[in-house]
Structure prediction request, 366 residues.
Amino acid sequence: MSTSHGDKELQKPISEYAKYLKNLLPVNIPETYALKPIFANVAEEKEIRDGVIAFRDFMALFFDCLILEGHRYAEPKKTKNPTSYPFLHSLNQLLIDIGYHSKYSENGDSLLLTEISVFQAPKPSVPVSKQMEYLRFLMLCGFVFQGIDLKAKRFSILDEVIIVSYPSNPIMLTGLKALAIADIELRPRRYSNDDNLLRCDYRLLKVEDMDVLDLLKDFLQALPENLQQFALELHQRYTKMGLTCTIMSRAGVHFAYAYVKNSRRTLSAQDIYEKRVWKFSVTMKEGYTLVVRAKKTDRYREIIEGFPLTLREKIAEGYGCDRKLRNEHCQMGCQGIRIPFDEEILAMKEDIVIWLDCEMPSSIGS
Prediction:
């Protein structure tokens, strides 16, 4: 029996999502890069850069705590969005609140808050019944809060100022502050379930534009070296052939490749994404995949016959709405033909290149 588009499904445990996000943390953060002027009043540039690295290390510990203890705070639920974990979303908002609205203490080793705005009435974004739970989880990760009645069932301030510290590495708070400012003031679009702070997306701080190749290398770093190399070869081949790569972070991370050089107007990242020929994706549900929007298969049927059986079957299935095509519930089949980007794809490397070449726009490909 078919189900409608967007039916609810049971989430994976939050520990699994924590493992997924931990793999997206940047590994190689440069020690030197120029910062945008907006951060001039936060701290010295070196302190901010050191703070960002310390925040990345904190987030690794944060995810480790979620992997071990997350089940105590969040149980899987049935939802239309399997990556929606309110506990994690609220922790993200709380961290942003602490970083963005605080001031440094006199000696600079802690942050001072007069309120936690996501806790405030009349419509707190973090439920009143859960507020102390979130603070206690951050304490489990190494935060220390003074000026709060930590024994109370509900959040209350004992003094006029809340003192927030991170004794194991105080410079982390500088990184948190800079990243929170970047998230609120510099991010073009912020989504209700975004996780950019949790992924330590430090590149918004930089003066120079983001290097797509560097971003792709970070994206691939959790994969075996031979798969990383194949992905980089595909990226370099098709950008040299004229495709534009754009990055989208929505229900996963997507590196999408589209031909847009003949466009008569300036295209947004979303516009380019919608014109994609293929993409690399990583999502909680599917892992790493190559997703191809094959539209010209009728023109190269003889070539397809020479592909391995696995690839021929994938292409023959086509893509589109799962409910309409296969009488199945939505599995995002409309995104394209999905090929797991694992060791098995390496046996089809040459065939994948031939396939993608056949799908190139006629003005630049066969």
Summary: The radius of gyration is 23 Å. Residues 45-69 form the longest helix (25 residues). Residues 1-5 have pLDDT under 50 and may be disordered.
